[in-house]
Amino acid sequence: MDKIHIPVLLNESLDSLSITPDGFYIDGTLGDGGHSIEILKKLSPNGLLISIDQDQYAIDFVLEYYQQYEAANWIITKSNFADIDRIACNLSPKRNPDGILLDIGLSSRQLEESHERGFSYQKEDEPLDMRMSNELGVTAKDLLIALSEKELSQLFWKYGEEKYSKRISKEIKENISNINTVGDLTRLIYKAVPAADKSINKNPSRRVFQALRIVVNDELGSLEKGLDNSFKVLKQNGRLSVITFHSLEDRIVKNYFIDKSRSGEGRMLFQKYIAPTDDEKRRNPRSASAKLRTLIKN
Ligand SMILES: C[S@@+](CC[C@H](N)C(=O)[O-])C[C@H]1O[C@@H](n2cnc3c(N)ncnc32)[C@H](O)[C@@H]1O
């Protein structure tokens, strides 16, 4: 088993939720359970935690790893957090949540132990799938085949901010019949990127992989729905805390929180956002780009 995912901004996100022992909380992104387990430890038997993940592998891992924490007040469910209001009403019809946490993106486990889904550009032999949930239909390879050169270029630019998107999509479409694995794609990307950039950036595939993953999983659409449905279902003075890892996600959260503050429906806990300390970044380099924002419902 690979190393367990290290929860990012753990103390800061728990503090931001202002957890009370009898409260009701939802962790919309269970992952390896790092945040969930610490929320659970703060709850009394009258408290309730619902943890959601769309990836069955994540749920299976947590059920086994945290067996000893199995409790009547911890419900784990496979679903998309976009439907968080419906999930909350079904599983806890009489209570609205006091706090919701969304820790967006992929866990380290999904990158390192991906079950042949090719999330990481370093796993050369894996197929180009990238679906977090087995309920999703379109794989990354399907996109490479179905989209035109121009559409692919737009996708890499819009969701990966990849400056060589045109050169990369041209290379891909010219060699489409030879692309099956992660390695097939990373080699083409490497070929398409100018020599000067190859020496600066040894892994020019990062942005293209991010773009494909975002589209395959409709990550930004789920985030928009998840924010709105979380805010709807929260109780008054309930808190919504979101941790993002790149500017596309953070922009959506920031704008949503600003809109809710301006309309008087909510207020932000922090003037801007909370970022990891230098110490956390040293201990866990994956935390480097994280931003935590919290909205309180008025
Ligand atoms: C960054 S990890 C969470 C890590 C977790 N907080 C921890 O400390 O172990 C994000 C998790 O959210 C899940 N996820 C991403 N988007 C989702 C969505 N729209 N609905 C449900 N789960 C999602 C991923 O499958 C992944 O397991």
Automatic annotation (TrEMBL):
Primary location class: cytoplasm
A molecular-function term among this protein's GO annotations: rRNA (cytosine-N4-)-methyltransferase activity
The protein's enzyme class: transferase
Keyword Cell membrane annotated: no
Stored Pfam families: Methyltransf_5
Enzyme Commission number(s) from the entry: 2.1.1.199
Superkingdom to which the source organism belongs: Bacteria
Stretches for region Disordered: 279-298
GO CC annotation, single: cytoplasm
Keywords: Cytoplasm, Methyltransferase, rRNA processing, S-adenosyl-L-methionine, Transferase
Name of the protein described by the UniProt record: Ribosomal RNA small subunit methyltransferase H
